[in-house]
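Hello forum,

I keep getting stuck at the same step: I have a sequence, I want structure tokens, and every attempt I make locally crashes halfway through. Rather than fight my setup again tonight, could one of you with a working pipeline run this one for me? It's a single chain of 160 residues.
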Amino acid sequence: MKKFVSILVLACAPALAFAAGEHSGGHSMGGHTMSGMSGIGKPGDPAKVSRTIEVVMDDTMQFTPAQIDVKAGETIRFFIKNTGKLQHEMVIGTLADLKAHAEEMKKMPGMQHVEPNMITLNAGQRGGLVWTFDQAGTVDFACLIPGHMEAGMVGKVNVN
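Reply #2:
Ran it on my machine without issues. Output:
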């Protein structure tokens, strides 16, 4: 029985470590966080999704759509497609936090995100984020891969 428990613990350890990393608000490399969650919303409950919005990322360094309108309190599932040949990501945040994070990314290229307001997709990949926009205002999003934000890969969510 002890051998079975030891094997079970060893088998589950990587998954538990990964889950702890996801919920601790860090990156799999680098370990920094985006501090400005206030004003941008919070991770959404997939069971409470109001609607799904498709966002396409491509190598023209654009998001389509780049302007999104939602209602305060709405939980959105972003269905994100990378139709380019380069890796891209979508990061939701304040413009100040996005710029600061982009600077950190320049120092640590290849960093992988594990925060609920971020997704990194390789060429041809699809993925999703579920986010609740809890107050009126403007929330920004961008691709923070070095050079992408600077090339114009940014967008806005208008929360009414």
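The radius of gyration is 17 Å. If your local run keeps crashing, start a new thread with the error log.
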